[in-house]
């Protein structure tokens, strides 16, 4: 897989994720230094947002925009993943009022490798490619967008539409339960 960075083709490392594939569990670091696991089956739908660096204009604007867009979804866990240092991210969260999402650090690049987003060369080596994943309550990837040019933004409308479907998904139950009047 590859993306472009300012027009230059750039290879990505890791396993490419596809729609309707089980979302892998990935270990990340919370801002307080504790470990956390994201992905896989969870009690609510998840929106995973890969952010190359909050120090750039496109990334910081994207984080703020997603923070506002997801406020309406009560049954959604949103995690923004970056490789920036924790002190900078803590300052960013406080300064920008990020309160609708967790921001975590992919310090060991576990998320980057398991989701096929690790930039393997150039000036952004060891950073994340810009991407979003929506994971339904069954732990399946129901939406994915890997942005082809790192300086471009994601398609917020398509992403929020996918989030709406996943966050408001109601399990149907089994036919025999309906037949039995359960």
TrEMBL record:
Keyword Calcium in annotation: no
Keyword Disulfide bond on entry: yes
Tree of life domain: Bacteria
An example molecular function term from Gene Ontology annotations: oxidoreductase activity
Chain ranges of the Thioredoxin domain: 17-168
Keywords carried by this UniProt record: Disulfide bond, Redox-active center
Membrane spanning residue stretches: none
Gene3D superfamilies for the chain: Glutaredoxin
Protein name: Redoxin domain protein
């Amino acid at each position: 897989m590859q993306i472009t960075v300012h027009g230059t083709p750039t290879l990505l490392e890791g396993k490419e994720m596809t729609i309707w594939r089980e979302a892998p569990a990935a270990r990340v670091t919370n801002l307080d230094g504790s470990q956390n696991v994201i992905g896989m089956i969870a009690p609510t739908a998840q929106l995973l947002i890969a952010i190359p660096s909050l120090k750039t204009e496109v990334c910081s604007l994207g984080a703020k925009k997603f923070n506002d867009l997801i406020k309406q979804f009560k049954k959604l866990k949103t995690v923004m993943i970056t490789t920036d240092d924790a002190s900078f991210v803590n300052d960013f969260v406080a300064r920008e009022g990020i309160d609708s999402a967790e921001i975590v650090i992919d310090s060991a690049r576990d998320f980057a490798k398991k989701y096929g987003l690790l930039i393997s060369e150039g000036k952004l080596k060891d950073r994340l490619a810009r991407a979003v994943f929506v994971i339904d309550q069954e732990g399946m990837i129901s939406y994915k967008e890997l942005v082809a040019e790192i300086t471009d933004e994601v398609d917020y409308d398509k992403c929020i539409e996918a989030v709406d479907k996943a966050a408001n998904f109601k399990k149907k139950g089994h036919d025999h339960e309906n037949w039995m009047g359960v």
